[in-house]
User: Fold this.
Amino acid sequence: MDEKQMKSGYLIIDIGTGNLRVAVCDQDENILAIRRTDIIYHTDEAYPNAYYFRPDDLWIDVMQLIKEVTEEVRRKYSDLKWLAVTSTSQREGVVLLNQEGEGVIGLPNHDHRGREWEASIFQKDLVYEKTGRKVSSLFSALKLRGMQERYPEKMAEVMHFTSISDWIGFQFSGKLVYEHTQASETQLYDVRRKKWDDELCEIFSIPKSYLPELASAGKVLGTVREEIAEQLGLDPEMEFIVGGADTQMAINSTEPALNDLVIVAGTTTPIVKVKDEYILDKNQRTWTNSHLYDRQYILEVNAGVTGLNLQRLKSFFYPSESYEKMEEELQEVPQLPRVTASLGSLICSEEMPLNRGGFVFQTPVGHEMKRADFVQAALWDMVFSIKENLDALLEIDPVDTDFMWICGGGAQGELFKQLLADVLGVDIRVRTGFRQASVNGAVKLCNQVNGYEKTKRQEEYRVVRKRERPEVKEIYQQWKMIREQFKRSE
Assistant:
């Protein structure tokens, strides 16, 4: 048999905020096949800002995409050895399960059904001390509290809940666990001690019986259930490896050392530092999360939905054109911007998020204005928001460094990476495969479990060099002034 037609592959299931992706990757992190589809969310009118998904429908989509990618790979390679399957998913998203293990309801990260009960949690400092984050309806405890308040009959069916990635593991293996990076997002988990906490369960009025056994990322959960293997044509001896939260998986793709700084350019933009100690901010501006590895933590600030803003602006201004076309036009507009944007990015030192924003430019509108001017303004807004958050992070936990890592689909623009280097005053390092960061991070995790080191190790990375640009200070001050104007308008 031709050796070129022999491959060993991992099956990776990646459930983000916007879409579901299923990929087959080899051990050298090459994507052999990938398919994606949108995740369907439904509005729950019982609360403001409440959304849910149907677990059965999501599982049907997962199975369909697995069939598609496996069929594609089998056409390419005459002999495929399945090594393992794993999953990663959006943080804060959960699936509630009944006694039979059926999904009762799925609550995504952007569901805020618990918001009106935030004020009923009085021990806020204690919650921050134990969980590394302020009380918020973003996290699972208040999602569950919201369900208890409005749907007591439905909650009477619920026996357990788990993260979306761990629910995928349950579907494959029949074993229910909750992985540590995902447990960090519940506010029922003591992040410093890496265990469920009785006092937190009491504070949020959540029965501890809901909480599955904790498991570390990289644990072999078991082999794929016989009926699943048969439906998908998989090796019945194929093992399921516990995955983790998509942000930590993306961070893993950069192979950071302790105290390295990483920007994850996704729908939101976490700016993180890898630590081996639990660090809290006295002003409660940061999150502290468990990392994929037992003795590591992630110290995080987040610039909010900057990546989502850019995606939507592309759909407005470049609906049928490629990122390459957009990048080409960005290179043609003046480096000193004609438009300034403030688009609701988050600054961790601000008490309240901005709910109003927009573009500001000289009037009347000049004939020289182009659509790329507005996208360029959004990029400056992203970069300055990242700078403000990074400054706060380094105030809390200083480090002397001349580089940062970046990963995620939002990092594909060359101008964005160059602006980051120029504004932050550091080189930006980019590994191969950065666009599919959570998938690549999952492959690295599986390789560690299997003791595999790539024959051509990806120690190489591309570097975007910082440049001296005196005009950046002026652009920054203009941006800060416009942002303050929008704040005052609220």
